[in-house]
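Give me structure tokens for this 214-residue protein.
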Amino acid sequence: MIVANMNLHEVYDTLMEEMPKLDWKRESLHSKAIKEMERSMRFQCLYDYKIPSSNNQYIIYFYRTYLFAPVQSGYLCILYDGSKRFVIKWTDWRSPAIHVFTSHFLQRYKERFLKQPEMTANEVAVMFLSRNSEMKPMAVDERINKHIEKYGEFAGEGFLVPDGFCFKLSGKETLEGKAPVGISFFTTFMPLSEMSDTQREAIFEECMKNLDSL
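Here you go.
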């Protein structure tokens, strides 16, 4: 079972080991989900799933951007640390990585961008990931995050996504003989329209730096 005091490699290895079971369950739910979405004209269909051998909890989701659009699907892990609840997405794209979405981040995304108070945290997480699959890592300084000194090196990067800007804390764990595993804690979200002129100018400058380096 995944617990909060595991190291990053233990968490990542556990998630990767359970992917075949998640893929099997997702495939078995696919036709049911499509029928439910067509019958109810919904854009999302979510299922709770617990793996009996580990008691790890997951969400298996199906999502479409508009009616009759192709359906995307995936899964997320739910982790509890005392009263705190986290949604975890992991990937081996480029390098092993774990993305941890805090309840605060999901609440801010719902309030500031989706503006749909009736949505659950799981629905918000699926909406964010489905809409923002393209994530551009970007250096963050005190102009973008005025609290950067509070978090130091762990707050030196954010993500620019189609819906806005993601503030995050990041780190990396390296073990001998294994590929480094990175972790990003998504702490809060801001639409660009609600950021200050100074913040937007700094983000634009960082984008231009990346273009110049190509």
